[in-house]
Design brief:
Shape: globular
Distance between the termini: 13 Å
Number of domains: 1
CATH superfamily: P-loop containing nucleotide triphosphate hydrolases
Order of helices and strands: HEHEEHHEEE
Radius of gyration: 14 Å
Strand order of the largest sheet: 2-3-4-1-5-6
Largest sheet: 6 strands, mixed
Length: 126
């Protein structure tokens, strides 16, 4: 999964939405951390989980990335208050728990589906 995140970082757009799908513990945050480290070209970068802050911002020379964990949203309208839809116009939004956006989840997005197949095995599919 980490190697895939490294390769994926080389071909992602600079703006828009990448939706990370998977059950609790599937590896969405692990994938996101590696993707961010790869974009930063810094394998030791400390990438905080946005579980409590909901959004972590990263500025790279080529783009701005919003790492969002939407698990704690109660209503889809809360994503509007966070500014996620506006951010997609000028930044890349990496969304964990994208289903929490409900009708606001854009149709024009890249879906990354992570499925647990064993204790330490995952399938990552676009």
């Amino acid at each position: 999964m980490l190697a895939f995140a490294d390769r994926f970082a080389k071909v992602i757009p600079t703006t828009g939405c990448i939706a990370l799908w998977g059950d609790l513990g599937a590896g969405k945050t692990t994938f996101a951390r590696q993707l961010i480290r790869s974009l930063a070209k810094d394998a030791d970068l400390v990438v905080q989980s946005p579980t409590f802050t909901l959004v972590q911002l990263y500025e790279f020379p080529q783009q701005t990335l919003w790492h969002c964990d939407l698990y704690r949203l109660i209503e889809p309208e809360e994503c509007l208050e966070l500014g996620v839809l506006e951010a997609m116009q000028t930044a890349l939004c990496l969304l964990e728990w994208p289903d929490r956006m409900g009708r606001y989840l854009p149709e024009n997005r890249i879906d990354v589906r992570i499925t647990v197949t064993g204790e330490s095995e995952r399938i990552v599919a676009l």
